[in-house]
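Input for the complex:
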Amino acid sequence: MTDARERLLQVRNLQLHYRTRRGTARAVDGVDLDVGRNEALVVLGESGSGKSSLAKALMRLLPRNVARYSGQVMLGGDELMGMDDERFRSGVQWNRIAMVMQAAMNALNPVVRVGEQVAEPLRVHRGWSKAAAMERVVETFAIVGVSRDFVTRYPFELSGGMRQRVVLAMALITEPELVILDEPTSALDVLTQASIMNVLKRIKREQGTSFILITHDVATSSELADRVALMYAGQVVEQSDARDFFHHPAHPYSKLLMDSVPRLHQSEPPGYIPGEPPDLIDPPAGCRFADRCPSRFGRCSEDPPAFELNGERRVRCWLHEEGTDHDG
Amino acid sequence: MTAEEPLLQATNLHTWFELRQWGFLRVGSVRAVDGVDFELGRGESVAFVGESGCGKSSLARTLLGLHNPSHGDVIFEGQHLSELKGEARRQYLARVGYVQQDPFGALPPFMDVRRLLSEPLIIHGVKDRDERERRICQALQEVRLTQVDEILPKFPHMLSGGQQQRVVIARALLLEPAMLIADEPVSMLDASVRVEILNLLRRIQTERGLTLAFITHDLSTVRHYADRIFVMYAGRVVEQAPVEQLLDNPQHPYTRALLAAIADVDADNALDERDVPDGEPPSLLHPPEGCRFHPRCPQAMAGLCDRQDPPLFEPEAGHYSACWLQDPERD
Ligand SMILES: Nc1ncnc2c1ncn2[C@@H]1O[C@H](COP(=O)(O)OP(=O)(O)OP(=O)(O)O)[C@@H](O)[C@H]1O
Ligand SMILES: Nc1ncnc2c1ncn2[C@@H]1O[C@H](COP(=O)(O)OP(=O)(O)OP(=O)(O)O)[C@@H](O)[C@H]1O
Ligand code: SF4
Ligand SMILES: [Mg+2]
Ligand SMILES: [Mg+2]
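Predicted:
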């Protein structure tokens, strides 16, 4: 985060563990994050690394089998984790933090007109009249690029791209400070993806909204990111300015990930990362990436903390322990 | 391509689906594949690229003989698919391996790997148990599932996405096909696994001298895995060229739009909006007259593009584009 930017969200040591038949799954296991105002933080990570769990932990949309939910979350100076459920629901959830859930565009109610669905947060959480809410729906549709005629349509009458814009409108309608987008484009075509990313860029520029964008796709992440947090097995292993992350990744996993990104005009084929991430039930004691890491050394059998580097960069890897000089 | 006979030819291929309301009232036809011509050489790797719904899977299934073409035909090793019946048709399916879209739906959940790999061999008359076992092991080795004894008793849900896809590929290879059709073989997988699976397909294709046709919506990966690219739009092939020519010198405005929408990863990508043509692909029930891309095309020429269907022009040798801009007679 650049120093000039005011901090909006600060997350420290966030934990969300699930009870399962096989044991406790540590889906979010000690995550620190920072998001500035009008900043976009991208949470990158492969499937199962805990991205959606992190989003749900921030939104407090928890399943019933939670084994542990703890840590600190500060939103613009307010501590959220200590807040009771009722206050959180009336004051924060969908009001100050809104979210587009993974695959939300397929979860629209098929028998309710989309305009009414988008108006719902205003009607339910804020008690707005129907007329006032619908007026705001039309305004929000304009922002996301949906024509007002669509207000009275049903979800099945809309293309995937249009439905994605509608669920985005639903998240924006309360003018939240922070919008969390969980894989908003991954089911869409290249051109539709690009136009949704254009919409997000415009909203960020014109409305000053802050974003947490969750994706597994590095190319998509580069379309919005000011900063990047890379997750691996429930932990954030690197958190850097986008420029540093894309052009000089620090964590060995970040480096391999960047090498695996296909480039249109590059003559060598992309690389890949052999092996698979560890089980979140009983993850290995040391660095969770160790058994896939080409730079692993003795120290890696201990759990590395996040080391702070220049430029508000945090890297969870022993190579970056202060005083060690392994960079290369 | 060489002068030798192509392995497969599609000639004026059309696959239309009749759309009926309440199960009987004919409403019209979905023109999923609507006039496609091409030849695939032996040992060649080609990619079909296009947006969702443009007819890629329908084309793949038509090449496999799973849909009967409404017009035109598929000619494989000189034989017309429409003339193959019964046993001959079954033999054809053994010559063409199929990796279907959605690897998670591709494997029956109630069969372990041994059983689901035995099945196609049994169906195709490999009666000897040891022979089956030998071929299964060989196929698993080939897809780099080397811990064969560990894999064989597993059920699909016990495998990672990448392992499942390897099993699907192994199954497609069992009958020693001359051609492999892979429909979006990596789109459901994580980025770190995608490259591994694509490398695997490419290696098998070169080692076996197979013809590989794979379908993708991701142009950024094709350079390393395909020799030729076919770009599809609304049931048609709008551009076809060797991969370098297509990526470095795209001709059709639709291909150009696709390439403009993806940029190599760079922190500056977040700063600028991309040029994206307005609108969405047309309905295949009532495709627009003239060029199917004209309602979205930034270069459409009124009076021409909205009236007349552009044929495939050949702006450079081996590079075809169905766009009036490439008409050599245009003044
Ligand atoms: N309610 C739950 N109970 C038990 N385990 C869960 C639950 N929800 C998620 N998990 C597990 O927690 C881990 C993290 O899941 P999560 O959905 O957060 O990952 P993700 O990074 O969003 O993955 P994807 O990219 O596939 O969406 C996975 O191993 C998942 O199986
Ligand atoms: N069996 C069928 N009956 C009727 N319509 C069909 C059938 N199969 C496909 N279609 C229609 O044909 C069109 C092309 O579908 P197809 O699945 O071939 O597209 P695709 O390019 O593979 O798309 P995707 O990228 O989403 O897989 C779509 O409009 C689809 O709804
Ligand atoms: S034929 Fe005309 S409308 Fe079609 S792509 Fe070419 S210029 Fe555009
Ligand atoms: Mg998720
Ligand atoms: Mg398909």
